[in-house]
Structures are given as C-alpha cells and as structure tokens.
Design goal:
The protein is α/β, with parallel strands linked by helices and 576 residues long. It has helices spanning 2-6, 13-45, 50-99, 102-108, 110-152, 154-201, 203-208, 212-237, 240-264, 270-312, 373-378, 403-409, 424-428, 437-446, 450-453, 473-485, 503-516, 552-558, 560-575, and strands at 332-339, 350-357, 362-367, 388-393, 396-397, 410-413, 422-423, 463-464, 491-495, 521-525, 537-542, 545-550.
Amino acid sequence: MIRTLAKSIREYKVASIITPIFMIGEVILEVLIPYLMADLIDNGIDKGDMDYIWKLGLVLAATALASLTFAALAGKYGAVASAGFAKNLRHDMFHKVQDFSFANIDKFSAASLVTRLTTDVTNVQNAYQMILRMAFRAPCMMIFAMVMSFQVNAALSWTFVICIPIIGFALFLIIRFAHPIFTRVFKKYDNLNRIVQENLHGIRVVKSFVREDFENEKFKAASQEIYADFSKAEKTISFTMPVMQVCVYACILIISWFAARLIVYDNMTTGELASMMTYIMQILMSLMFISIIMVMITLSRASGERIAEVLEEESSIVNPENPVKEIKDGSIRFENVSFSYAGDKDKLCLKNADLNIRSGETVGIIGGTGSSKSTLVQLIPRLYDATDGSVMVGGRDVREYDLEVLRDSVAMVLQKNVLFSGTIKENLRWGNENATDEELVKACQLACADEFIQQFPDKYDTHIEQGGTNVSGGQRQRLCIARALLKKPKILILDDSTSAVDTKTDAHIRKAFATEIPDTTKLIIAQRVSSVQEADKIIVLDKGTINAVGTHEELLKSNKIYQEVYYSQQKGSEDA
C-alpha cells in the first residue's frame, strides 16, 4: 500500500524531504533552550552576573527566533507537500478510473469510487501532513529531550524509560482493536453516498410518489450505522488520553519528589530542576503527540488501503501488444459467443450467439426484458469482453484492435441518455471536438433535433443542465443520436434510443439514416416492431439466446415470439 501511494508524491518529493529537516532543526533548537535557561539561572541570575545574563539572553532570543523560523518553513512546505500529494492521488485515481472497463467499475461501484476520491483522499492528506511534521517532530523531540535530561540528571531520567513501554503497549492494543472498525465504517460511507446519489438523481420520482419519509428513513438507517461504528471506534481510541495522562502525571510526581530531595541535599541546582521540568513536559507532550499520530494513521490506513485498491486495480480490458490501427469496414461477426457479467461460465446471460452482419446493413434487435439485447451490442466496442467465442469487426477479432480506434469507429447511443452540463454545442462536440457549426446542424437535422433547438432563444448555445434535466426525454435522445452521428462511425448502435420519440419522428430518423449514412452498419434495439420492420434483418433474442434471424415478413410467418410482439402492438394501436 505505502509503495503504491508513494508513487503519487512525484514533484512534491523535495517539499516532503525538507519539511522533516526543518522540523528536526526546530526540535534541536527547542531542546537547547531549557539547557541554556539552566545555565542562565545557575551562572547568571544566581551569581548576579548581568554581562553573562545579557550575553546568554541574546543567544536564547536568537535560538528561539531560529526555532520559530524553522517551524514556519516546516508548516509551509508541509502544507504544499500534503496538498500536492492529495492532488496527485485524486488525479491518479481519476485517470485510472477512465481506463477501467465496465466490469472494473461494477466491482467498486460509482458511489464507492466517489467516496475514495473525496473522503479517503482527505484522510490520507491530513495523515501525510501530520507524518511529515508531527511524526518526525514528536519522536525527535522525545529522543533529544531524553538525551538532554540524562545530561542534566541520569537517575531521574530513567523514569521516562520505564514509562515508554507501558504507553507503547497500550497504543498497540488500541490500534489493533480500532483499525478493523475504521475499515468497516468506510464501506458504510460508500452505502450512504449511494443513497444520497440515488435520492438526488431521482428526486422527481421521490416527490411524485410522495416517498420523502421512506427516503429519510433509509438515510437515517445508513447514517445510524456509521454513527454506531464511529462511536465504537472513538470509544476504543478514547482510552489513549487516560493512559497518557496517568503516565504523564505519574512521571511528574515521581520526578518532583526525587528532585526535591536532590535539591535539599545539594545534588541538584535550581536551574537543573527548571530545565528538567521543561524536558519532562517536552518528553510527555511528545508521547501525547505520538498517540494522536497513531490514531490519525489508524484512521487513514483504512482510507489508504481503499485508495491503493483502485490504483492497483488492472483494467480487465487492455490493448494488445501490437494493436491493429485501422478497421476495414463495419461488418460484424459473432462466433459462438457467450458472456457472463460474473465471468462464470455457469451463469451465462448470453449463450452461443452466432451472427453475420454485412457492412452497411441495418439490423433490428428485438426481445423481452432481460433477453440480453444490450449485452449483445456492448461486446462490439469491447465495453465487455466475451467470456467464450469471439466478436469480429471488419474481419478481425475486436481484441486485436487498438481500443481508441475501435471505439472511435463504433458510436453508441445507450439506453440511459447522458448529457453533460454545458451548451448544446459542447455536448454535440463530444462526438467530434473539431466539428464545424455546419456539421453540428447537419447531424441534428438527421436526428430530427434541429427543429426544437431552433425554438430555444439561444439555439445551439442553449445551456444544458447536468444530466440534461432541462430538456425532455425525447429531446435528450435526439441530441445523443446527433452526437453519435458526428463521430461518422462505421457502426452505429441505437440501444432503445428512440423510445421517447413519437412514431413519426422515429420514422424520419430511420429514413435519414438510410439515405444519409448508407455505408454505416446500423444496429437498432427497439421495443416497437415499427422501429425495426424495415431493417435488412431482425434478430429475435429470448433468454440470452438468438431465437431467430430474418426479415420482418419471414419472422411474421415463422417466429412465434415475433408474431406475439407484432400482433399485441397492432392490437394496442387499434384500441388506441
């Protein structure tokens, strides 16, 4: 884990190195101050030597100023190093997620990835800053102060040596019990994040079904689980302070009692007692800071492990060693293809699919819910890899192609149409960032989107809210189709992407496809038979298998599933 996280320090290595150096410099000077004070008291104040007092006083002032300067520099570079480290962690995680396949994202879940990019990175950032500063300062302070205390009075200093193992053992037990709780609680944070995301995305549904109370209870239950675990962890960690205080006060009492006897018998001077008490506080405060650091590291360790999981995850879909950089045409072939989302051959959702689609053909795909229509087409651009068999595009296995080249040649309009915050132009240029305004208009005309865009006051500069919430479902679908057309793909996949438009507009879109992009292979997943009946061939899927392939007329004569769908829709339209 540490090696994985350390790779994200990069350009902040210098700041990370000099921060502890400044801290050590501050500690050395701070430890010298009590020693100089003892000398000032014993050889200056007690003897009434004003020259010596002025001389040593100036040395003390310079030492204190230098210590303060080192502390300020350590604070500055520590903040730069920790903030930069966190920035790089977020960048590296986000960059890694962009390379993930759908299978990788399914493994972590979107809510978990958001938590890791935010809460977990913040925890690690805070811990890193504390490690650079306090994790160096506290042990160094304890060691140097102990060395100086032995210089002052070795007999009294052995009190610390006895105290340290007791504190260390107590901290070990506390950390051992607290870490598993923190590991568990961050998983529950993922669940809470998921609930919040679902609620915000579906707030219109929540309000329309008057389910606010239900959502409040769901959130309250998830929040209560986090509260219970954090309370348990905090109760465990709360033992740290009582243990520290018992040891601190015990050391002070023991040393005070012995020091008083030594002063009475002239074995210890007033200055030595003053410096000894300062060293006591420095050592004991260092021990307290060490306990706080250990608590912070325990908390951040769980976060660090979760971040490392993402950074160490390898995408299940990667480029081959010598990828093919060109796709000949839009022909598609499935050779005995089976697929399982779990990668388990006993849990296949697509079974033994054999297909041959010529370049430029229009192919309809129809079937009931859960018949693996979307699964079938997602294998073409390698959003997932086939569990068995091979998917071929342009005469070659899709696993031989460069991923960017393959996906640039395949345009998909998914079931869930996603638009991003920005103008209509900016959304359309996701298809082609260099597209001219004329090309944008042309694509929108083909997708029957230009008509409603022209009615907006700002036309193509109209701002789209996140998710496209300020346009209708049908308008959102048509914008997504136009965006896909701008890629000028060899293969165009429409995954039930005209379900929210009327049949007349649907017919216009299909006619435009036939006349304007005849060389593009078009795969149309649809619930309405009318959307696919003019296709060159229609694939009927049933429970993950290809039940039949043929034209509308052929299937209407021979396929029972197709007949049932067609006649039920015909009857519905007549009743309407």
